[in-house]
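Lecture notes, part 5. Sequence design as translation. It can be helpful to think of inverse folding as translation between two languages: the language of shapes and the language of residues. The source text, in structure tokens, appears below.
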């Protein structure tokens, strides 16, 4: 990453001219910024629209190319800053490039083409620097690095498999939750439908009989208080029936099957219904509710 680049760049000034170091730092910074911008553009594109097969291939090439470019410019330090005879500098470079393969593995293992692009670019410069010297020690180092590369490759494949398994489990969990939610919604809708049928039948009877009594179809009521009570029973039954219908409408809304029809509403009728519901309870507690609206 860039903080590491800025931290180690001054150490090369002991053996290399500052202009070379500055050019390398500038190129590495530009490659890292390009890599980050490319990744953000991919995330933004994938979040807002579905990509075609052709676009997926283009993005794959862009991501792998950006990762390989940054890794290659970073690893080019072993060639640019190599100084024959400066053992401290050269071994520092060898250790730096070899160790950098570990973060390359961790950062790119989720997408194996990215890993191979970055790791191969890193390895080309490393092996070039080692095999270009006739000393067998450097060749032994090249063999050791190759074994380390194979080990990191196996590690990257294991990380990739684990990540894929976790993603698959997450998708299956989401699908299971959605299926259970749909089943619960269907069960609730079925329960409400059954309950509405069971409640509507006696309610319709109550409303019908109270209406017959309030109209005194079979003869007058001797006590007017009974007439008032039958009216309250009738209005309360209709109110309860309206509540049941509203509950069923809620289930329709959740299922996306409810159609809204706008119409004018007489608020005085609503207020009058509320007054009738509250008046009986208020009278028990010697509370009088005044009606100050007209129908």
């Amino acid at each position: 990453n860039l903080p590491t680049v800025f931290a180690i760049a001054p150490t090369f000034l002991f053996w290399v001219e500052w202009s070379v170091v500055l050019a390398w730092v500038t190129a590495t910074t530009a490659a890292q910024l390009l890599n980050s911008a490319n990744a953000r553009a991919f995330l933004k594109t994938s979040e807002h629209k579905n990509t075609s097969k052709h676009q997926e291939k283009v993005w794959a090439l862009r991501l792998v190319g950006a990762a390989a470019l940054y890794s290659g410019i970073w690893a080019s330090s072993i060639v640019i800053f190599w100084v024959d005879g400066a053992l401290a500098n050269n071994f520092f470079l060898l250790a730096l490039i070899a160790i950098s393969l570990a973060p390359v593995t961790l950062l790119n293992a989720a997408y194996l083409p990215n890993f191979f692009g970055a790791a191969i670019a890193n390895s080309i410069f490393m092996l070039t620097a080692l095999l270009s010297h006739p000393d067998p020690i450097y060749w032994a180092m090249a063999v050791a690095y190759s074994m380390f590369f194979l080990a990191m490759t196996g590690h990257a494949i294991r990380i990739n498999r684990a990540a894929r398994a976790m993603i698959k489990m997450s998708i299956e969990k989401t699908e299971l939750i959605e299926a259970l939610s749909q089943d619960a919604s269907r069960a609730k809708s079925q329960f409400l439908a059954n309950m509405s049928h069971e409640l509507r039948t006696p309610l319709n009877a109550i409303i019908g009989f109270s209406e017959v009594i309030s109209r005194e179809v079979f003869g007058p009521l001797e006590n007017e208080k009974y007439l008032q009570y039958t009216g309250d029973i009738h209005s309360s039954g209709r109110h309860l029936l309206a509540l049941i219908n509203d509950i069923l409408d809620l289930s329709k809304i959740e299922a996306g099957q409810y159609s809204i029809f706008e119409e004018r509403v007489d608020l005085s009728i609503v207020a009058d219904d509320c007054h009738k519901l509250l008046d009986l309870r208020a009278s028990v507690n010697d509370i009088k509710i005044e009606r100050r609206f007209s129908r």
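The translated text above is only one of many valid answers, since several sequences can fold into similar shapes. The chain has a mean pLDDT of 82.
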